[in-house]
Amino acid sequence: MTLKECYILLEGDYEDVLHQMIKEERIRKYVLMFLKDDSYQNLRKGMEEEDYDLAFLGAHTLKGVCRNLAFTKLGDISSQMTEYLRNKNDIASAVKYLPNIIEEYEKTIHIIQSLDKIG
After folding, report:
1. How far apart are CA 36 and CA 55, in angstroms?
2. CA 32 to each of CA 45, 54, 82, 96: distance values in angstroms, whole numbers, following the listed order
């Protein structure tokens, strides 16, 4: 799988990230580093432990990382979760929305891992 094909599967914006990072090698490096980012784990831990400050921090950081990498779909979903958790104003919606984050994150990780095996 090419990096561009990876972005198509991720519903990301390859042209945007290429414009930002200039070289495909740099994009690949940062995409693979995403596998080690702990913001999703912080989001999940915060939700499980009802530590909504940690959950917010995780969602907000995940949103930022996704926006920097032009992972559009996961970035949009993370942004929505961030707003539910902001100032703990809509915890019930955050709880209901969590499966969306889980599903898209796991899809993203699977696609990136496939890229890593091939690349």
Report:
1. 18
2. 23, 24, 24, 29
How far apart (Å, rounded) are the C-alpha atoms in residues 56 and 21? 28
Integer Cα distance of 74 and 62 in angstroms? 9
Q: ∠ CA 113-74-36 to the nearest 5 degrees?
A: 40
- Quote the tokens at residue 36: 């080690």
Give the CA radius of gyration of the chain.
Answer: 14
pLDDT tens per residue across span 4-13:
999 999 999 9
Task: Give the global pTM.
Answer: 0.93
Please report the sign of the dihedral spanned by the C-alpha atoms of residue 85, residue 108, residue 61, residue 58: positive
